[in-house]
Design goal:
The protein is an alpha/beta fold. It has 2 domains: 3-344, no CATH class; 345-405, no CATH class. 21% of the residues lie in helices and 39% in strands. It has helices at residues 22-38, 54-58, 84-90, 107-115, 346-354, 359-375, 381-394, 398-404; strands at residues 62-63, 70-71, 80-83, 120-124, 134-139, 147-149, 152-157, 162-171, 177-186, 191-200, 203-212, 217-225, 229-238, 244-253, 258-267, 273-282, 287-296, 303-313, 319-328, 333-342.
């Protein structure tokens, strides 16, 4: 790529949108207008104050068109996986209202909405129970020049359907930016397990939006293994009575990595339940951020919502910012939230040391166990095993721990 072919992120926005159905052109136009009016986040943007992105906003990137993720697994019977571009050309009416159900996109999500060129649509018909998981691999741009990709995935589950969906974001180039959007639409009594793994050493910004009908179940497990800069948002809209979501996360931050997880769960209907459990470890000069919000609307009586964020701080130069909080406008609810930032448990260390385990190995064992408790919630066995191995590869004495297990 030449210098002339690179642009800043906002500079890459076209003046108008001429391709695609009218509703998509309008959607892209609203996203672009919002970006031109509000810009990308700065240190004054409250939700981004701990994650400065000026170096990304001001940098020039080359656009990478190869942003469609690769299918790792075969397509199970009964479901359809197709290109978003092809679906928008052949059946645009089936996608209307499904690329913006989370509300007007802002910041990086708006940039993806304006600029994505293709993606994948995974459609599970009503009554279809998919036993084998769907696995996608997202690779960051590989050019030696700074590049940006805009992967987009839509997952739709009909009533009484079930799916396990696994995503891996990988890459080793520190100057490459992946700006992803995944949208999940769950019908009545639909169930989805969503595993997302971040193993990208570069720049990552991602958003997952989930809309849930009555009695649906959504379970997310996010495993983040470092990254030069990562910002990941999950937004769940519990719109049907009796809907439930569970958000689990584990993150390991070392060196000068910076990872930021934001969650937003909106209880919009009655008798819904949500639970969030995030655990993180920060060492070196790494920075970890967790910001979780639960909003309980006035009509969402009989809500049950819980948040927990626990962190281990393993060096004096590492930083953790944590802020779980509640916004409640209903009176018949059961809600709780809490956060901790601390060091390893001295009693547990004493227990291991008293049994002849060297101090440095005891530290490593407790560190591994702290995050393994989240990884163990991954229902897919081979993915769970791979995540354990990835943790062991990054924790001191990993081989020794593996031999003890």
């Amino acid at each position: 790529m030449t210098e002339a072919s690179r642009q800043t992120l906002l500079g890459s926005l076209p003046a108008s949108f001429d391709a695609g159905p009218a509703w998509l052109r309008a959607l892209r136009g609203r996203a672009a207008d919002a970006l031109r009016d509000q810009g990308l986040p700065t240190k004054r943007t409250e939700a981004w104050r701990f994650t400065p992105v000026r170096s990304v906003v001001d940098a020039e990137f080359s656009r990478e068109d190869g942003s469609v993720p690769s299918l790792v697994s075969s397509i199970p019977d009964g479901i359809t996986v197709r290109s978003l571009k092809q679906a928008l050309e052949a059946e645009p009416e089936r996608l209307e209202g499904r690329l913006d159900f989370g509300g007007a996109p802002t910041h990086f999500a708006a940039l993806n909405t304006a600029l994505f060129s293709d993606g994948l649509w995974i459609d599970v018909p009503s009554g279809t129970v998919v036993r084998a998981p769907i696995e996608l691999a997202h690779a960051s741009p590989t050019s030696s020049e700074p590049g940006v990709a805009y992967p987009r995935v839509l997952v739709t589950l009909g009533d009484n359907s079930e799916l396990t969906f696994i995503e891996t974001y990988a890459g080793s180039e520190a100057r490459q930016l992946t700006n992803s959007v995944v949208e999940v639409d769950l019908g009545r009594n639909a169930k989805m397990s969503h595993v997302r793994v971040h193993e990208n050493a570069g720049l990552q910004v991602g958003r997952v939006g989930v809309r849930q009908d009555a009695d649906s179940r959504y379970r997310s497990t996010v495993v983040t293994l470092g990254g030069a800069l990562l910002r990941f948002d999950v937004r769940c809209l519990l719109q049907g009575k009796g809907a439930e979501c569970q958000l689990d996360g584990a993150y390991l931050v070392e060196g000068e990595d910076h990872v930021d997880h934001h969650t937003l769960v909106e209880h919009q209907a009655s008798h819904c339940r949500s639970e969030q459990t995030y655990r993180g470890i920060a060492s070196g000069k790494g920075t970890a951020v967790f910001d979780g919000i639960v909003v309980v609307h006035r009509d969402a009586q009989k809500t049950e919502a819980h948040q927990e964020n626990r962190n281990l701080l393993l060096s004096e130069t590492a930083t953790v910012h944590t802020k779980p909080h509640l916004e409640i406008d209903a009176d018949d609810v059961i809600c709780s939230h809490g956060a901790t930032v601390g060091s390893l448990d001295e009693d547990q260390l004493f227990y291991l040391r008293a049994r002849g385990i060297p101090e440095d190995l005891a530290h490593a064992m407790l560190t591994y166990a702290f995050l393994e408790s989240i990884v163990d919630r991954v229902s897919h066995e081979s993915t769970r095993t791979r995540m354990r191995e990835a943790l062991l590869a990054r924790i001191p004495h990993g081989d020794d721990i593996r031999g003890i297990q």
